[in-house]
Amino acid sequence: NISGALCISQAWPGMARTIYNDHKRFLETYLTPYPGFFFTGDGVYRTSEGYYQLTGRLDDIINISGHRLGTAEVEDVVNHHVAVAESAVIGYPHEIKGEGKMPAFLSLKCLSRDYRTATLTAELRELISKKIAKYAAPEYVQVTCASWSNTHPG
């Protein structure tokens, strides 16, 4: 069980060979970080059984009150909640914190229809506060599951 950067050791058909009008940037971004390998920009987790799971972009960083935080790190914590099938976390401008509001967009598992938005939001904030830090807790949670209802009992 190990996490790290996803790098490819051999060329493949359709592989990028440059960035238009900026070949130096291409070399610095994809070939220099890990000499001899093509760096995809993605993080990866490999299980002891040899299965791979992409964990998100390593360069997708949000600056919250001077703290640099990867969106994939927050998504990983959110995805451990029993009601969450998948999530996406983004930052957007905040006049005090920089990129502070960091909303979480969620798709829920079918068994999760009994959750109310307020309950789910509170549980996710608590989970993120414990696993990462209080500053990382999202100020806004948007449920994107089509079968979700705020009026459903829970």
From TrEMBL:
GO terms for cellular component: mitochondrion. One of its GO terms (biological process) is acetyl-CoA biosynthetic process. Signal peptide: none annotated. It comes from the Eukaryota. GO terms for molecular function: acetate-CoA ligase activity. Residues 73-144 form the AMP-binding enzyme C-terminal domain. This is ACS2L synthetase. The lineage of its organism: Eukaryota, Metazoa, Chordata, Craniata, Vertebrata. The gene is Acss1.
